[in-house]
Amino acid sequence: MKSGDSVEMNRMFRARIYAQAFTLVALVAGGMYFKTERQQRREFDQAVELRKKQEKRDAWLRELEIRDKEDREWRERHASIEAAAKEVGKKPAPPKESEAARSSIEPADEKSIGIMDAVRALISRN
């Protein structure tokens, strides 16, 4: 800034004010634009998450249905073996190897115990 060149200096000050005004307008417009974009992105992410949760739930339900079907089939086979054994008047034949493994895992005739009973049994063993 030279002394005596006030016209040029005033013009530069005006240019600076215009640049600052443009910056403020750009910030406000950008904020409004990106606000809607962020909101749309958030809605999209929520929709994707909801779809994933639904797919996971459906897969879980299919797995439960398959397990339930297998369990019913096993119980029916077990009941038919027992019925055949009673007709013959013998002791029931020992289950096949796969059924023996399953019966040791999921005994049909045992009473289920609660969590507290299981904890007490574990503690009493030690």
Automatic annotation (TrEMBL):
<dbReference type="GO" id="GO:0005739">
    <property type="term" value="C:mitochondrion"/>
</dbReference>
<dbReference type="InterPro" id="IPR007667">
    <property type="entry name" value="Hypoxia_induced_domain"/>
</dbReference>
<protein>
    <recommendedName>
        <fullName>HIG1 domain-containing protein</fullName>
    </recommendedName>
</protein>
<feature type="compositionally biased region" description="Basic and acidic residues">
    <location>
        <begin position="82"/>
        <end position="100"/>
    </location>
</feature>
<feature type="region of interest" description="Disordered">
    <location>
        <begin position="82"/>
        <end position="109"/>
    </location>
</feature>
<keyword id="KW-0812">Transmembrane</keyword>
<feature type="transmembrane region" description="Helical">
    <location>
        <begin position="17"/>
        <end position="34"/>
    </location>
</feature>
<keyword id="KW-1133">Transmembrane helix</keyword>
<feature type="domain" description="HIG1">
    <location>
        <begin position="1"/>
        <end position="45"/>
    </location>
</feature>
<keyword id="KW-0472">Membrane</keyword>
<dbReference type="Pfam" id="PF04588">
    <property type="entry name" value="HIG_1_N"/>
</dbReference>
